[in-house]
Every structure is written in C-alpha cells, then in structure tokens.
Amino acid sequence: MNQSTRKNIATNNWLLVPLSFLSAFILTLLPMPDWTAWLRPAWILMVVIYWIIVLPNRFGIATAWFAGILLDVLNGTLLGEHALAMTVAAFLAVRMQIRFRMFPWIQQAFGILLMVFVYQLILFCVQGFAGQPFVRWLYWLNPVTSMLLWPWVFNVLRHCQRRFGPLQLNPR
Questions:
Q1: Where are the chain's structural domains?
Q2: How far is the C-alpha of 148 from the C-alpha of 41, rounded, in Å?
Q3: How many Cβ atoms from other residues are within 10 Å of residue 161's Cβ?
Q4: Least crowded by CB within 10 Å, which of 24, 84, 111, 162?
Q5: Cα end-to-end distance, the chain, whole Å
Q6: What is the 3-state secondary structure (H, E, C) of 111-165?
Q7: pTM across the whole model
Q8: CA angle 143, 78, 71 (to 5 degrees)
C-alpha cells in the first residue's frame, strides 16, 4: 500500500466518527408524527455508547457531555439537561465497557435499555424540577425502541469501522 492510499484511509477513518454523530443528530432532529414521537430511539446516546465501548481511550464522558450540550442547543431545551443525562449514561458505559464488549448482542441490548432508561429518568426529573408538564406513559417507550435497534446500530457502525480499517492517530 502506498503512502497516498494510507493517508486516504486514515482521513476516512477520522471522518467516520463525525459522520456517525452527524447521522445521529439528523435522525434525532427529523420530524415525526405526534403519535410516533414517543418511539424515537436515543440515537445520539447509542452512538456515544458505541464509541465509548469500541474506543474507550479516545471517547468518554467528555464526549457525552459535549454531545448533550449540542443536543440542548439544537433542541432549545434547558442548557445542560441532555448533557447531564448523557454524562451519567456514559459513566455507566465507561464502567461496563470491558464486560459490555464480551456480552452477546441480547445482553448488550438490555444494557442499552438500562442506560437509556437512566438517561430518560434524569431528563424526566430535570424537566419536572423545571416545571415542565408531566409526560404520558409513552415517554418510557424510548428505552425499549433503543434496545430493539441497538443490534442494528452496533452492526452498522462496526461494519463501517471495519470497512475503513482501525482508527489510528498517526498511521505509518
């Protein structure tokens, strides 16, 4: 493999992470009919968890905090609301990342259910303290849809990562 090919692969590798986050933000911000809005999975949180599990030395709680602040700004919600919730969920992912890698996909999906439930619970509490109106029971379907879509999200991101090779800081 010549020098220019290696450089192109390395460039594509580092484009994968921002493109995965961009895709997650687009999927999160896409309008949905009112009757299906409760089924929207936590796309951004799932991408954050994926990168924490796959590359724990490069992604962590700070990544989750930054993604949460960006989501707060884009949604126009209380600043720090999503950042706090994502940070706590990312902390769980960091603590479980070694075990999480060895889990079969069904156990990983239940781990995602737990992390997204904690994320939703923190959002629920913050919104309650801020005086926002109580939500319906459908609010709690978000962790279930995230759990059901986790195997596909994980496999798509893993396929993209393998297709473009391992991420490297200084390819030689």
A1: 3-163
A2: 9
A3: 19
A4: 162
A5: 11
A6: HHHHHHHHHHHHHHHHHHHCCCCCCCHHHHHHHHHHHHHHHHHHHHHHHHHHHCC
A7: 0.88
A8: 55
